[in-house]
Amino acid sequence: MKKISENIEIKEKAIIVGVNFNESKFDFDKELEELTSLCHTANLEVVASTTQNIKEINPATLLGSGKVEEIATLVSALSADVVVVDTELSGSQMSNISSACSVKVIDRSMLILDIFASRAKSSEGRLQVKLAQLKYSLPRLSSVSGSIGRFGGGVGMRGPGETKLELDKRTIKNDILKLERELIKVKNQRMLQKSERAKNMVKQVALVGYTNAGKSTLMNTITKAGIYADDLLFATLDTTSRMLYLGPNKKIMLTDTVGFIDRLPHAFIQAFNATLEETCGADLLIHVVDLSDKNYLDKIAVVQDVLHEIGADKIPQIVVYNKFDKMGRLFEVPENAILVSAKNNVNIDMLKDRICEILFPE
Ligand SMILES: Nc1nc2c(ncn2[C@@H]2O[C@H](COP(=O)(O)OP(=O)(O)OP(=O)(O)O)[C@@H](O)[C@H]2O)c(=O)[nH]1
Ligand SMILES: [Mg+2]
To answer: What residue's CA is closest to ligand 1, atom 32?
Structure first.
């Protein structure tokens, strides 16, 4: 956001660019819809969008030269502040597009990391986000300082808390080492707590799912925990755990976790390892799905892929189809599916029964 006076802030204007490398089977609308939601969450106003099917990659700018010219025209006609490209760009590609359009250029991963940077609250969450940002910017340093630093602050430059993202290679390397050491300490504390819990024989249950599926709302409804839930992507960045009694000798520790997204930056997976380990250590996963999302099947597949990548795919899983209340039409779900409305507290008892059946078989 740009400050125009002490109290008024205006949103940065963004032009978004969809990219497809494989012409068949690609849904630009779906991809751009998600990128628009991400921009909205990052406080950007999307003023135009454009797409390109890439058959042959132009190494200098990834996009073809005609497309770059078109974007430059859009930038000046609409007074845009930033171009957001829906794929990962190399440092020099970012810098070249930026020079051609005279505006800063960020890619999808930087946008996601920027959202994380402005939302992480706990000290561990902030450490993880900063680590992810530094790891992502290190190989792209010349362009980050060239294409972004040149245009001042705003999206792409936000770091957790007061710390601005450093743009000096040596400082970044030192910071990465320092952050990794601090995170090991936090991890050790976490392991200690975990072994305490294991001693108490409390079953661990983790809520997982695509961002905005309703995990925190479900956590709130089940435990009355009062966790921040919002219609934004990545509302939750810190894990929260609550003890829940499901009956005599049926005690579980329920953990709400950060949401997943398609094409999660790899730097994120590395940096959020500690948080993701919480998921891997669970006895049961509750996979929350937004049934009202027309792309819910694709999103289920993305979540299963991430679970596989972090080694959590062998943990028993209950798939919960949420936002049932929004369904005004007929729809198909697998047999025995649990349909809930976390918001309206519908069928939550059915979910609790299923948890008990799996964790405490009679
Ligand atoms: N209609 C309806 N809306 C719901 C339901 N459950 C959640 N929502 C809404 O969906 C949005 C996202 O909910 P959250 O609980 O923040 O989702 P989340 O999965 O925790 O999202 P992240 O933390 O961003 O990954 C909020 O606006 C909720 O009010 C439901 O059962 N019905
Ligand atoms: Mg949440």
So the answer is: 323
